[in-house]
């Protein structure tokens, strides 16, 4: 018994004292390494240190991107409520995501016709990541202090942990500053929109340097369709783990401000300098597979959203009345409540079919980069695979703790996690 207790204490020390500094140092370093190597340059510590401070161009663009995202959350728009938290608050978000996405992309394309914006973003990409890294670190320090001194929601209680772990995890679930929801700003309006802007810049740069390449185009268009789908469905994102359970700290805010622009765009960035050599018919196969996967991913999420918004959960899925399991649970205030676990459509085939199609979509736009460029063009897919496997277990642990026996009934009804009839 004492041995197991000592092992538990050791794991706790690793989690709270070793993991945060290790992750912060590793990911801050690897971002610069990838950005420098992706351009075909020789990596040196001196070059990394220069890039980490940014330059005039990178600071101008990073400030513009941040302010533009903030403005999008201040213009008049429909309010969208997120799910109720354990402390009884329903966060309010702005429901103008798709309009923001379209308007931003159009403005950027017009600017690119007048000035060499795309070439500038590509050439200064390591410095841009350096600027965003500094902005993200300062934001996380501010959020740590704010969460301790003046939290947005007084009832948002979180246990005190070692300071560096609190910085890494975050203190508040839904902090707001000047009326801006910080997580919607960092995750959606900067991180995901930055993803779109950067891949567009990389595509334009590739065409300008080497001419039109079918594989490069497929890589770009699949991600563009995926991101357009995301902003069309943005209200559904507010019901995901990122928004419901992850606190605003280094993990989520730095991740969206720096890691997303770096790794999520990396296949597009890398193939500018390392042009893929796929034949047109091969690129076409990746395009078809990717579009099909993105469409199915959207349909899976749409089914859940349609079911959630239906009165008394009465709606049709695949032409039949939706079947579900009524699940009782106790909220953070000790009140008994009832929810519903959907067992129709894709949600009756596997418990995380949306993850399955998301992985297939990512493989399509990474794979079209060519296996001669492996594993660099596949880094996002490799990372996403690990992330979604981890998220699958994390999600199910939370559901089991919340719904208890009703979750076990759901798992008996829908026994597969990701791959029907396999796992």
Automatic annotation (TrEMBL):
PROSITE patterns: STEROL_REDUCT_2. Pfam families: ERG4_ERG24. It catalyses: cholesterol + NADP(+) = 7-dehydrocholesterol + NADPH + H(+); 7-dehydrodesmosterol + NADPH + H(+) = desmosterol + NADP(+). The keyword Transmembrane applies. Its main location: endoplasmic reticulum. GO terms for cellular component: endoplasmic reticulum membrane. The chain crosses the membrane at residues 16-36, 56-77, 98-119, 125-145, 220-239, 251-271, 283-300, 377-393. It is an enzyme of class 1 (oxidoreductase). Pathway: Steroid biosynthesis; cholesterol biosynthesis. Its EC number is 1.3.1.21. It is found in: Endoplasmic reticulum membrane. It is a multi-pass membrane protein. One of its GO terms (molecular function) is 7-dehydrocholesterol reductase activity. GO terms for biological process: brassinosteroid biosynthetic process; cholesterol biosynthetic process. Keywords: Cholesterol biosynthesis, Cholesterol metabolism, Endoplasmic reticulum, Lipid biosynthesis, Lipid metabolism, Membrane, NADP, Oxidoreductase, Steroid biosynthesis, Steroid metabolism, Sterol biosynthesis, Sterol metabolism, Transmembrane, Transmembrane helix. It comes from the Eukaryota. The keyword Hydrolase does not apply. Belongs to the ERG4/ERG24 family. This is 7-dehydrocholesterol reductase. It comes from Menopon gallinae.
């Amino acid at each position: 018994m004492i041995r197991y207790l000592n092992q538990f204490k050791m794991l706790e020390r690793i989690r709270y004292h070793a993991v945060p500094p290790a992750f912060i140092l590793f990911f801050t370093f690897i971002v610069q390494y990838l950005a420098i190597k992706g351009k075909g340059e020789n990596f040196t510590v001196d070059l990394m240190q220069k890039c980490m401070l940014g330059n005039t161009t990178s600071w101008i663009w990073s400030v513009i991107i941040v302010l533009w995202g903030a403005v999008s959350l201040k213009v008049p728009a429909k309010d969208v409520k997120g799910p109720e938290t354990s402390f009884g608050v329903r966060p309010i978000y702005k429901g103008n995501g798709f309009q923001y996405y379209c308007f931003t992309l159009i403005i950027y394309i017009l600017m690119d016709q007048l000035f060499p914006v795309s070439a500038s973003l590509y050439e200064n990409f390591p410095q841009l990541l350096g600027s965003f890294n500094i902005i993200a670190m300062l934001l996380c320090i501010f959020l740590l202090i704010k969460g301790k001194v003046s939290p947005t929601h007084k009832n948002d209680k979180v246990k005190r942990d070692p300071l560096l772990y609190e910085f890494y995890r975050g203190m508040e679930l839904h902090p707001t500053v000047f009326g801006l929801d910080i997580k919607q700003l960092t995750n959606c309006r900067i991180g995901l929109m930055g993803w779109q802007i950067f891949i567009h810049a990389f595509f334009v740069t590739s065409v300008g340097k080497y001419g039109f390449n079918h594989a490069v185009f497929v890589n770009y268009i699949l991600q563009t369709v995926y991101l357009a789908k995301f902003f069309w469905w943005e209200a559904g994102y507010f019901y995901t783990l990122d928004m419901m359970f992850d606190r605003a700290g280094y993990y989520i805010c730095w991740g969206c401000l720096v890691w997303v622009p770096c790794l999520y765009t990396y296949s597009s960035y890398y193939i500018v300098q390392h042009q893929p050599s796929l034949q047109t018919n091969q690129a076409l196969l990746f395009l078809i597979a990717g579009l099909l996967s993105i469409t199915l991913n959207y349909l899976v999420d749409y089914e859940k959203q349609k079911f959630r918004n239906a009165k008394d959960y009465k709606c049709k899925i695949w032409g039949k009345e939706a079947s579900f399991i009524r699940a009782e649970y106790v909220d953070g205030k000790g009140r008994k409540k009832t929810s519903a676990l959907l067992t129709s459509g894709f949600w009756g085939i596997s418990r995380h079919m949306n993850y399955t199609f998301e992985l297939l979509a990512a493989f399509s736009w990474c794979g079209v980069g060519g296996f001669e460029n492996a594993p660099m063009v596949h880094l996002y897919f490799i990372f996403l695979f690990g992330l979604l496997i981890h998220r699958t277990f994390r999600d199910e642990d939370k559901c089991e703790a919340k719904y208890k026996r009703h979750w076990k009934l759901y798992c008996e009804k829908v026994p597969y996690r990701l791959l029907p009839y396999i796992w």
